[in-house]
Structures are given as C-alpha cells and as structure tokens.
Amino acid sequence: MDDAKNPSAALELKHLRCLVAIMDTGSFTDAAHELGLSQAAVSRTLAGLEDILGMRLLHRTSRSVSPTATGVQVLARARVLLAGTEELVREATTGRTRLHIGHAWSAFGRHTTEFQRRWLEQHPETDLRLIRHNTPTGGLAEGLCDLAVIRAPIDLKPWAHVQIGQEARYAALASDDPWARRRSIRLAEIPGRTLAIDRRTGTTALNLWPEQDRPAVEYTHDIDDWLAAIASGRCIGLTPQATAAQYRRDGIIYRPLRDAEPVPVHLIWRPHSPHPATHAAIALASDLYH
Asked: Which CATH superfamily groups domain 169-261?
C-alpha cells in the first residue's frame, strides 16, 4: 500500500465503526452482519480507511484477522472517538451524561457500593457505570472508559492521575490451607510457597523480596484464573484489601499480610480530554478512602 495519505478522501464515522466491528467480531462476515452491510461493503470501507491513512491496519488470512501495530493505535483512538460521538448524541437527546469508570479487578473495593449510592444522590444528572476490563489501564488506553481505578504498578506518565488512597495487602489462601488457621501472614514467609501472579493486571511483583529469596511463581491471566489457582491449593496469592472485599468465594479465605507496604490506589484519565465529571469522581473517591 502507498504510504502517502489520500488527501481527497474524508475520514467518516462509518470507517471507524467498520474497523471496530471487524476487531470486536473477529471477521469481516460477522462485522457485516452486525453493521447490516454486505461483506463486500465492509471490505470496501476498511480499504477506504487504510487508503485515507496510507497504512495497513489489519493482517488478514482466510482464518483470522489481527491488527497491525498501527492498527492497534488507530483502534484505540477509534473507540475514543466513537464513544465521544455516542455521548454527544445521548447528551443532546436526553440531557444526561454517562461516566464510565474502568477497573481491572475490584473497582473501589469495600467503598464500591457507597461510591455508587452517593454518586446517585449527589450527581443524578450523570449516569455512572463501573466496568471491569482486564487490561493494565482498566480499559482507558483502549478507549473503553473515561477514568480508571488503577492499583497495578503501571507507568503513569502518559496519564493525568491522582492517588485517592491506599490499601493494605492480604494473603489469599485455600480454606483448608495450613495457614488458614492463623490471624496473619508475614511477607518473609511467602518464598516458601508457590505464588499466583497476574502478570498483566496484578499488584504483586517479585521485587517485594530479595533476588536470592523469591517464591516460585504460577502466572495467571485474570481474576477468575487467579482465584481458581488459589482455591485448588497449589498456590497462594497476595492482593490488596479491595480483592478481599469484592471477591468472597467458597474455598478461599484472606488473611492480613504483615510488614508489607500498602498498595497505592490511583484514578487515571486522558489529560487532554477529561470527562466533565472527573473532578467530582476524584473528590468522592478521595473522601471515601480518607
């Protein structure tokens, strides 16, 4: 494909909707069904977008579709633009706005219900949605939310951010684990066990221990995978208090972890396009944590 952009063509929302539909459904055929178009029309629209940008956005085979490096970036921006357009239409037609707050695991932990109740009382004009996205930024980088609650140690420099509080660490154990009878666990004891770690969105890293004295690790893919590994008895886990509050499961108990630094809790958002309710959300969350 020619690397030069096509100056005579105009980027339209249909181009972005087409790209998102292809990636969300996984095929041109299913995207066509979702958009109410023919498969040929979907192919032409995607080709038109690539022509406008002068870049290949998708790798296509007879069995799969996957984004190129440029495609990943364009897809993220497309989601943001489409969400903004939908919000604009919703505001114009209903007079209400909607605030999406993403999170990878536990929203506001034990404060979640109170946050939702107070928000409804104090800001009835703004519809609040808490949505879990299994990504390091809780869906913010993917354009799926307006703000995100972050506990994992990510690079905060690309985002506007504020620390709203901190949470103590807990050990997650199978209910029949020998340690389950104890009141608390020491950080120095963990290297004797196998530790379940969610490498993508978890808050636990091996640098909590000296390099020569680190636990064996089993890596998991999301909160459900992590909980299943612990419930089996083959692993234990370390996690913020929020997980203990939000994920009470049969077969798993939580015990406080002594002598470990607490986990900071941040709200992050896009610095150049904050949602109008951003500062209200920060104020309420900070008040609950303090």
From this structure: Periplasmic binding protein-like II (3.40.190.10)
Query: In this structure, what token pair is assigned to residue 239?
Result: 């996690």
What are the boundaries of each domain within the chain?
A: 1-95, 96-166+265-289, 169-261
Name the strands in the sheet holding 147-150, side by side, starting at the edge strand that comes first in the sequence. 126-132, 97-103, 147-150, 263-269, 160-167
SS3 185: strand
For 1-95, CATH number out of 1.10.10.10, 1.20.1600.10, 3.40.50.150, 3.90.1150.10 equals 1.10.10.10
Check if 96-166+265-289 and 169-261 are the same fold.
yes
Residues ≥6 apart with Cβ < 8 Å to 68: 55, 56, 57, 58, 59
> What distance in Å separates the CA atoms of residue 10 and residue 210, rounded to the nearest whole number?
56
Q: What is the pLDDT along the chain (290 residues), one digit of tens a residue?
A: 545 555 556 899 999 999 999 999 989 999 999 999 999 999 999 999 999 999 999 998 877 889 999 999 999 999 988 888 887 777 666 655 889 999 998 999 999 999 999 999 999 989 999 999 989 999 999 888 999 999 999 999 999 999 999 999 999 999 999 999 999 999 999 999 999 999 888 899 999 999 999 999 999 988 899 999 999 999 999 999 999 999 988 899 999 999 999 999 999 999 988 898 999 999 999 999 99
Phi-psi group of 171: left, alpha or beta (phi > 0 → left; psi -120 to 50 → alpha; rest → beta): beta
Is residue 227 a contact partner of residue 157, using CB atoms and an 8 Å limit?
no
The domain 96-166+265-289 belongs to what CATH superfamily?
Periplasmic binding protein-like II (3.40.190.10)
